[in-house]
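Example 3.2
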Amino acid sequence: MTQAITDKTCSRRSFLMFGGKAALTVALVPGTLAALAGCKSDKGDEIFRGERKIVDHADREVTIPTVDTLERIYFTSALAQTYVFSLAPELQGGTALQLTEEELKYMPALEADLEYMGSMSGGGEIDREMLVEKDIQLIFSISGSPLSASDISIADELQDSTGIPVVMVDGSFTNVVEAYRFVGDIMGQEERGAEISAFLKDIYDGVTAAVADVPDDERVSLYYAEGPFGLATEPAGSEHGAVFDVCRARNVAKVELTSGLGMTTVNLESVIEWDPEVIVAWDDVIRGGADEIIRTDPDWSDIRAVKDGRVYTMPNAPFAWCDRPPGMNRFLGLQWVANMLYPDRYDVDMVEKTKEFFSKVYWADITDEQAKDLLGNSYPPYKKA
């Protein structure tokens, strides 16, 4: 007891914070003596400094705020923000998303009051002075693909230049469940992180089981129409088209993979030659896509998907359902695409599935009509006569 009280590695101020009553607790509670005697230890940092050490997914040791002192988090991209938003929106210290009114109506009211501080996605930049001014305590860098040396270098530079800890997370499709648990632990949201993880895993397992035995010659051919003219796309194997791959669509795009943001440019002649059964296009309201152009322009009219009325607008609120950001939103996209392509195999009511996802992940209770509006002409799903 005497050694613990007089150990000079503890400051007098630290000891007085506990007072005589805490000193008695030291003698009575196993483990407390070691915590006080080692004020320079990790445990001491948690008690006296409000800090703890973690190892992130890039094997970097990072000193971060303890759960009870963490109040303001920022993010290097919209993807990272979706994790924080879905776990504890009140911990967002700003926004990396420039949201429209249509998107905001599906989100808690506080989202409209967050200040935009930039994003590093696509070569962009964050306002580092604002990070310091707003007293951001922690930054998440979450990747939609396995972490690279370049990702690590960028995170290290951001951390060094701001003095704010940057935690790296592998949020690639097959690691999203683990990523939620990891981020939830850091944020003090272990229970909610585990709940969302289990929910997303159930979706993935259900979809993949339903489509696993689709014969190659029965896979529905699909073209993903990106951009304002619908003439940018993703080939099979692209992270940006992963939802379609998992759902066993036959991606018709025979193009080179463009790294980073993707969106390989194609010409209309190629799309006509590929003649997909289904086209999934960006909407023209939120994303400035080509869904209505594809449906109405005579130049597209001979393609099977157009003739059969199977040009589907990808739902985009509050986040795009299939991609950008490549986060948990893609799991709702999995259900949407699987039901749209193979309704006999993945026979679910997408109105109910949409409402369930919004409630469990997005903090929003939406009506049947709102869900149907989001689903557009994909509800009810197309079935051959």
